[in-house]
Amino acid sequence: MTSFQTLLTDVSGRVATIWLNRPERRNAFSPVMTRELHEAFALYESDDHVRAIVVTGAGRYFSAGADLERGGETFNRPADAEQTAAEPVRIDPARMRTPVIAAMNGSAVGMGLTLPIGWDVRFAAAEARYGFVFTRRGIVPEASSTWLLPRLIGVSRAMELLLSGRIFSGAEAAEMGLVSRALPAADVLPAAQEFARDIAASTSAVSVAATKALVYGALEQPDRAAAHELEHQVFRWMGRQADAAEGVTAFLQKRPPQWRLSKVKDYPPMLPA
Questions:
Q1: Closest CA relative to residue 121, chosen from 50, 40, 192
Q2: How many CA atoms lie within 13 A of 198 on its CB side?
Q3: Main-chain dihedrals φ then ψ at residue 79, nearest 5 degrees
């Protein structure tokens, strides 16, 4: 298993769990942790054995966002800083074929929240504190959150949160649809892992990968008819594959399915690679 400086990892039951592991800094993102998280995503995305990824925080916090150790110079970076060797690996979770689930076991603000809203499913601690605090730090939101958040919760609510930078609870996040579930903090990781294990056991890896691609593609497709046509093409392609026959047969025989297709090697050719 790959060793990381700022992450802990484990693979069990075809589910990879990643812990952000800087508890002394409330799991704030350093350049090293940002790079290593992308590296871990790339590692598990290329592994057919891993069917889902859960990301959580070590200790009481999920993530305090960007590390403010540099004080007032924290966000004063050279124009070409993104091209430095410190962050050589970038992977877009929306383009991944593996589901990524946020188990936000504690509070998260700034980057600690904009990254998870770009993942597929989010569970939050009901009493924890969350916020898009950028305007309160003299900067603007990042990680394409100004594009995504209005699509998740609507323009009015997104503007309320982004403009004010106010703090809200996990329970409120669930009420507005920002997270799927708000649970007691101790239950967040077990619930996320249980959900991930169900995906691993009950669903076809390629069906899940293709569904992700269709959903995220439709968010960027203004033409409903074009989105439907692509969905129809993928449906017809999947219907001719071994997993479609296995899914129906296993259901009729009342047994667990034995999926054959590989998320790495088998993929609908009409979808972006």
A1: 192
A2: 7
A3: -60, -30
Measured CA to CA, the distance from residue 86 to residue 137 in angstroms comes to: 24
The encoded tokens of residue 263 equal 């998320």
Residue in this structure with the two tokens 């071994």, named with its chain if needed: 242
Cα 110 to Cα 94: distance, rounded to the nearest angstrom: 19
* pLDDT of 77 strictly over 80: no
CA angle 243, 224, 158 (to 5 degrees): 100
The 3-state DSSP class for residue 212 equals: helix
Distance, CA of 233 to CA of 255 (rounded, Å): 29
**CB distance 192 to 103 below 8 Å:** yes
Mean pLDDT in the chain?
A: 93
pLDDT at site 75? 55
Architecture of domain 7-200: Alpha-Beta Complex (3.90)
Q: CATH fold of 204-273, please?
A: Lyase 2-enoyl-coa Hydratase; Chain  A, domain 2 (1.10.12)
Find tokens 């990680």 and name the residue. Answer: 143
Q: 177: exposed, middle or buried (C-beta count within 10 Å: 0-12, 13-18, 19+)?
A: exposed
Nearest to 128 by CA among 90, 58, 185, 175: 185
**Domain residue spans of the chain:** 7-200, 204-273
pTM of the model: 0.93
Q: CA 254 to CA 256: how far, in whole Å? A: 7
Q: What is the DSSP letter of 55?
A: E
* Residue whose tokens read 């439907």: 228
Query: Worst-scoring range by mean pLDDT, 8-12, 14-18, 41-45, 85-89?
Result: 85-89
